[in-house]
Amino acid sequence: MKFFFSSIPIALLFFFFFLLQPAVAEENKAPNISDILITTSQTHLLLFCSIKNSFTPEMIEGVRNGIPVTFTFQVELEKIVSNWFDSTLVDLTIHHTVAFDPLKEKYQVTLSEKPDNIITTPSLDKAIETMADLNGISVSGLDKLEPDAPYALHVKATLAEKTLPMNMHYLVPFISLWNFETDWRTIEFRY
Questions:
Q1: Which residues of 27-47 are buried (b: 16+ CB within 10 A; e: fewer)?
Q2: How far apart are CA 164 and CA 65, in angstroms?
Q3: Under 8 Å CB-to-CB from 100, ≥6 apart: which residues?
Q4: Residue 18 banded pLDDT, cuts 50, 70, 90
Q5: Distance CA 122, CA 8 (A)
Q6: Pairwise CA distance, residues 15 & 8, whole Å
Q7: Which pLDDT does position 12 carry in this prediction?
Q8: When comparing pLDDT for 20 and 52, which is higher?
Q9: pTM summary value
Q10: Which of 19, 73, 104, 148 makes a 20 to 30 Å CA pair with 163?
Q11: Residues 6+ apart with CB under 8 A from 47
Q12: How many C-beta atoms surround the C-beta of residue 178 within 10 A?
């Protein structure tokens, strides 16, 4: 009988642990910016990052039905000034748009950082990967940065803004469910 009463708290603990598992799994499906890398070329400060969990099944279905999806990345570079307001050096807005061409059965991804280069692929996975990645974005010229000064780089993404013309999104109500964004991610560094 003593064993029975001592095992009840342990059983309750396991029960609550398994009860909370779906909530934790749902929380991990929220979009977030990860794999942030800041490096330099010979002349510029470069940013690499990606968004995890960027597409929902509704968004994928919308793209397959001909509705273009746009991701908007916001990148800010600030110089950290002690005992004063930080000064913003760079404020960038970058757009990635994917659209499906049903006649060619291919996805076209347009990147605002490479306006003359439209990426065309038959693979949805490749289109999603291209949409979610920032690869070597030139944030600032190195000549504008002071050696050994502290800086903060902030990155945020708004996913799947409404792209239908003139309030047409009221006629297609599920598009409003697509509007979500990541939290700001901040990386502090010294140049």
A1: eeeebebeeeebeeeeebbbb
A2: 13
A3: 63, 64, 65, 66, 106, 107, 108
A4: very low
A5: 56
A6: 10
A7: 43
A8: 52
A9: 0.74
A10: 104
A11: 36, 37, 38, 75, 134, 136, 137, 139, 153, 155
A12: 19
